[in-house]
Design goal:
Number of helices: 2
Number of domains: 1
Order of helices and strands: HEEH
Strand content: 25-35%
Structural class: alpha+beta
Distance between the termini: 11 Å
Shape: elongated
Strand order of the largest sheet: 1-2
Number of strands: 2
Helix content: 40-55%
Largest sheet: 2 strands, antiparallel
């Protein structure tokens, strides 16, 4: 398999995942109180949104690479 075809497939996968999930969420723990043996923590959920244009650009880039790679083969 040629490197350009492999990159095109990876871009397709990234584009599909980006369009399907539209972001990812992660959880952090923050100390609220720390008095000797007594500790209180708070969980914060944070979301990083992925704009749909990133997925579209990845899909188009993968298609361009795949078509360009087939023309040179």
């Amino acid at each position: 398999m040629r490197p350009a075809s492999l990159i095109a497939i990876v871009l397709f996968i990234i584009g599909i995942i980006s369009l399907a999930y539209q972001g990812f969420t992660y959880t952090t723990q923050k100390k609220v109180v720390d008095i000797g043996p007594i500790q209180a923590t708070k969980q914060e959920h944070k979301t990083i949104p992925l704009p749909p244009i990133i997925g579209v650009i990845a899909l188009v880039g993968g298609a361009v690479l795949l078509v360009g790679d087939r023309r040179t083969a």
